[in-house]
Write a structure and sequence with these properties.
With about 450 residues, the chain is of the alpha/beta class. The protein contains 20 helices and 16 strands. It has helices spanning about 1-5, 25-30, 35-40, 45, 55-65, 110-130, 155-165, 180-190, 210-220, 235, 255-265, 290-295, 300-310, 325-340, 350-355, 365-375, 395-400, 410-430, 435-440, 445-455; strands spanning about 10-15, 20-25, 70-75, 80-95, 95-105, 170-175, 200-205, 220, 230, 240-245, 265-270, 275-280, 280-285, 310-315, 345, 380-385. The radius of gyration is 28 Å and the shape is globular. The model is unreliable at about 130-140 (pLDDT under 50).
Length: about 450
């Protein structure tokens, strides 16, 4: 069991009924910077002198006899090293008698320090902005609607709706697949709004643990948890401006309740504080998952969805934006010509055809990276098929036509021949690895195995 626990990423620590440490796994010893033999048998507070019986989550589990979940704790170990963890603690009982406690902890020291530095820098920048001329004051959004490239009716429609929404202060919920430009739209809405000279702050809700995200958003007061200081949160820093909450569907449900309260009455309460503070913040949220699906799967509260979705925008995928491909290709070629000091003038007709046939699961961002990669590796003035990643080869219509005779062949046979050839090529590309080939073909592994057996395809 000890060998198994040493391979767990979370720290695991156990104490007996008198508060003496009886077990530490490898992860706990590493992030707490202590040796197991030095800690075993010692009283907890001798190893963690900055804690007290009232503030130690493990000792409270013994005292109160009830479990606690996801409690943030900052402490110093006996070497003076400052550590921040998120702890879940459980009393150990035998016949209703408490004989010890066990704690599972996640080390967030580096994440917390980095997040607080970012918040502190934002606070400094915003305070400096107050002393600037009005035109420069607090405007940290980088993009405008002119930066949203495309003339298709799909993108033109959503741009028009976003421009109208920019003139109000109502909440906005944006849905779009990865790479469709959600953050670009939010920046543009801020710069087109009456809040353009006020703060613009963005926070990814999926990037931080729930308890840390709460303190970053709402702020803390000294003593609210061990190691906490008086610190303003992003809501206060974004006052009078715009707060962009990306991946709102990744925010813990209990935190979504607090966000709903901000939307309803415009007040926030710092973690551990009894005082409410009034804030005037325009909230724009984004989801990379269809909102109704997120609601049904209990990743987004229904009441929060209705409150955020006062203005709802769905960004089209690249494959839905008919006619925008040539415009986007030219835009990125021109941009990377400047950045990379290149003189690329065009892409080959073959590449254009491949781009038109490809599904673009990564959307505009994927197109941007493909062109950047091609221009980094190429010589000359034309992007050719040789500059593209290998997986684009199967989308070349000429290559597909070479794999089968499409004249005077029944449709069923033609499709079967195409399927066989695609499976063969993908298996060859992945050296016969069925799992990777199935991912490349975007079909279940079992389905691929069935087709290999059905068509008697040899794995090379």
């Amino acid at each position: 069991m000890e060998k198994i626990l040493d391979h767990v990423e979370e720290g695991i620590e156990m104490i007996d009924a008198r508060g003496r440490i009886i077990y530490l796994n490898k992860a706990a010893t590493e992030y707490e910077d202590i040796r197991r033999e030095e800690a075993i048998g010692k009283y907890m507070l001798d190893i963690y002198p900055s804690l007290a019986p009232e503030t130690s989550t493990l000792l409270r589990a013994i005292q109160k006899g009830i479990p606690t979940f996801d409690i943030q704790q900052t402490f110093l170990n006996y070497k003076g090293k400052k550590i921040t963890t998120i702890n879940s603690s459980f009393p150990i009982k035998v016949k209703q008698k408490i004989i010890g406690a066990i704690e599972i902890s996640k080390n967030i020291t580096d994440v917390k320090e980095l997040s607080e530095k970012v918040v502190a820098l934002q606070e400094q920048l915003l305070s400096k902005g107050k002393n600037r001329k009005k035109k420069d004051e607090g405007d940290s959004a980088k993009y405008t609607f002119f930066d949203i490239v495309g003339k298709s009716k799909e993108i033109t429609k959503v741009k028009g709706l976003a421009m109208k929404a920019a003139q109000t202060s109502s909440p906005v919920l944006i849905y779009g697949e990865t790479g469709t430009g959600k953050e670009l739209f939010v920046h543009a809405m801020h710069t087109a709004s009456t809040r353009r000279n006020k703060p613009f702050i963005a926070q990814n809700c999926g990037a931080l643990p729930g308890t840390l995200l709460e303190s970053i958003l709402f702020g803390t007061i000294k003593g609210s948890f061990t190691g906490a200081d008086n610190r303003a949160g992003l809501f206060e820093l974004a006052n009078s401006g715009t707060l962009f909450l990306d991946e709102i569907n990744s925010m813990p449900l209990e935190l979504q309740v607090k966000l709903l309260r901000v939307l309803q009455d415009g007040t926030i309460r710092r973690v551990g504080d009894s005082k409410t503070r009034k804030v005037d913040v325009r909230i724009v949220a984004a989801s990379n998952e269809e909102p109704f699906v997120a609601v049904e799967n209990k990743r987004l509260r229904r009441d929060l969805y209705y409150r955020l979705n006062v203005v709802g925008l769905r960004l089209p995928e690249l494959k839905e934006r008919s006619g925008d491909m040539p415009i986007l290709v030219k835009y990125f070629v021109d941009r990377f010509n400047n950045q990379l000091n290149k003189t690329v003038k065009k892409v080959s007709d073959e590449v254009v055809e491949i781009f038109e046939n490809y599904d673009w699961p990564g959307n505009v961002r994927e197109l941007e990276h493909i062109i950047e990669g091609a221009m980094n590796l190429m010589d000359g003035e034309e992007i050719t098929v040789d500059c593209l990643p290998m997986h684009f080869e199967k989308y070349n219509r000429k290559n597909l036509e070479k794999t089968m005779d499409i004249k005077n062949v029944p449709l069923k046979t033609a499709l079967q021949n195409l399927e066989i050839e695609m499976i063969r090529k993908t298996l060859k590309e992945w050296n016969g690895n069925i799992s990777h080939a199935a991912e490349g073909l975007e079909i279940p592994r079992q389905t691929l195995q069935y087709k290999i057996k059905k068509y008697k395809i040899k794995r090379e």
